[in-house]
Structures are given as structure tokens and as C-alpha cells.
Amino acid sequence: SDRSVSLVKWIDFQSLGDERGSLVAVEIGKEKAVPFAIRRIYYIYRTEAGVSRGFHAHKALRQVAIPVAGRCRMVLDDGYSREDVWLDNPTRGLLIDSMMWREMHDFSADCVLLVLASEHYDEEDYIRDYQRFLAGVK
Ligand code: T46
């Protein structure tokens, strides 16, 4: 794989706003849309000030994270490099591939992070130990 390619892969949704306000539609299976069948949806909200979340990777799960309100900072790490990105645009989702370490920091009080997931919840799919994650990618 080409390690100079950015870990940060955005999915830009069409904003269907008009004078009444904004609307985004998420469609599956179209070009430039969510690249997997969605089996689960969850959202993270009312995160307490100063709290960080994540600190794990997934063996198989792929996800798209959309900050439908507020902002947070996402750290992605593929075991070779680390990138830091603000999620602050509700028309833009971040594709988080499998075998990618992720951390979430600096949640705004109003942040609602919507996550579209390719699989049902499975604790067996989590790698919660960073050294074990590194051993898995190298
Ligand atoms: C991820 C990041 C971005 C469930 O029972 N079902 C679920 O679908 C989820 C997502 C979680 N849970 C349980 C497991 C824990 O007891 O809810 C509790 C909190 O989950 P966790 O500590 O894994 O939350 P985060 O914010 O650290 O991670 C979550 C996702 O779990 C993870 O897949 O990529 O958001």
C-alpha cells in the first residue's frame, strides 16, 4: 500500500438546503456515497467536558462518522502514521476503515456524532490494546 496517501477519507454529502434551512440525505450503494451496507447506527452525544473516547481499532468494522451537530477532533492511526482532523461539517462524513486506531477528543458540548456502521455490535471485533494493534498491522 502507498503509505504517503492520507488516512483521512471524506465522504461529501449533498446539502439540500434552501431558505428554510439544511437537509442532508445519506444514500447507500451509489457512487461517492457510503461504501457499505449499513447494519447499525449509533450516536455519541452529551459527552462530558474533557472526555476522550475510542482508543481502539476494529478488525473488520468499517464506519462513517458524521458530526450532525457541534464538533470533535478525531485521531486516526494506521500503525505507520497518525493524522488529526476536526469533524465539524454536517455535510461531510469521515470514513474509518478497519484496522485503524481511532481516538476522539475535544467534543463540543453540543456535539452529536452520528456513526454508520457496516456490522452489528461485536466486542470480539475490537482491538483495545495499542501494542496488539501494531502487531496486527505490521
Ligand atoms: C468506534 C467509536 C467511533 C454497544 O453495546 N453497542 C454499540 O453499538 C456500541 C457502539 C457500543 N456499545 C456499548 C459498548 C460499551 O459498553 O456501549 C458502551 C460504549 O462503547 P465504547 O466504549 O466502545 O464507545 P467509544 O466511544 O469508545 O467507541 C465507539 C464505538 O464503540 C466504536 O466502534 O469506532 O465509537
Summarize the structure in words:
- This protein has 138 residues and is mainly beta.
- It has one domain: Jelly Rolls (Sandwich).
- The chain is built from 1 helix and 10 strands, in the order ββββββββββα.
- It has one helix spanning 130-137, and strands spanning 9-12, 40-45, 53-58, 63-69, 72-77, 82-87, 92-96, 101-105, 112-117, 126-127.
- A 5-stranded antiparallel β-sheet has the order 1-7-4-9-2, with no helix packed on it.
- The mean pLDDT is 94.
- Residues 40, 42, 44, 53-54, 63, 102, 115, 121 line the site of dTDP-4-keto-6-deoxyglucose.
- Residues 8-136 form the Sugar 3,4-ketoisomerase QdtA cupin domain.
- Pfam families: FdtA (PF05523).
- This is WxcM-like protein.
Please give the CATH architecture: Sandwich
What fraction strand?
35-45%
Distance between the termini: 12 Å
- Neighbour order of strands in the largest sheet: 1-7-4-9-2
**Average predicted confidence as pLDDT:** 94
Write a brief structural summary:
By secondary structure, the protein is mainly beta.
Topology:
Blueprint: E1 9-12, E2 40-45, E3 53-58, E4 63-69, E5 72-77, E6 82-87, E7 92-96, E8 101-105, E9 112-117, E10 126-127, H1 130-137
Antiparallel strand pairs: 1-7, 2-9, 3-8, 3-10, 4-7, 4-9, 5-6, 5-8
The chain binds dTDP-4-keto-6-deoxyglucose.
The site of dTDP-4-keto-6-deoxyglucose has 9 residues, from strand 2 and strand 3.
